[in-house]
């Protein structure tokens, strides 16, 4: 391949293609202005309109949510890990059966590893359009979204019905459930007992790390944010490192599986050596860009100018992308 073809593995922020009908709450007031993005992997969209930018399996999915002020994402759960970092804006994350078990406000660069098995939602509480970037465990992202019962009921009142096949049908467009397809059943009271009400201390203490704390930790070497030996100790099927300009190294390195670079501050120049599949080349990444680095490709990333610079680096591990210890609180 040529260096120009490597550009196909870079998704630029300005080229992101949103889907406004990705989930069941797309018509629900307060949630009807969301934009969802599937950057790497199939994601968990319930709509055939969702565009996938890079379909190459990585062992995890990368997505994003863009929302105007006061727009929220409804309460839902996943069977695998869901990690967010704030790219732009100010966001409130909340959780629990009714969304009132706890909440935390995150600023730009902050990261949250939300425990599996609890209902969670998020809202842009800033004054401008905001964006959060997401990492979902597994290539199939846990097989979809599990919605709190009231979300499915509210959506039906506004014309959207979710089939048990995981697909959305818009009655406002004359759509109906196909023959033989039943509506997605609501979780029973007995099933809801499997979704714990975790305290703020549990969720924030185990899963939230602040941008400026990570900058301090990554003063001279990358900080492992999520991993068996990370500052968030979890094994969700992937690891997340935080790299600052002062911690970046010009030494070339490689991984035995695809990895992902996601700048959050500053501009980064990524260089790579030639191998049997790729010619040597370089590219510059800005905040909001996402780059998939092929396996066994020697590469390095350095800030392209002076000033503040930080990025997140994600790579899959051999750990199963299922419920983690954080989803089983005592």
UniProtKB/TrEMBL annotation:
Pfam families: Cupin_2. SUPFAM superfamilies: RmlC-like cupins. It comes from the Bacteria. Gene3D superfamilies: Jelly Rolls (2.60.120.10). InterPro entries: Cupin_2, RmlC-like_jellyroll, RmlC_Cupin_sf. Residues 69-132 form the Cupin type-2 domain. This is Cupin domain-containing protein. The lineage of its organism: Bacteria, Pseudomonadati, Pseudomonadota, Alphaproteobacteria, Hyphomicrobiales.
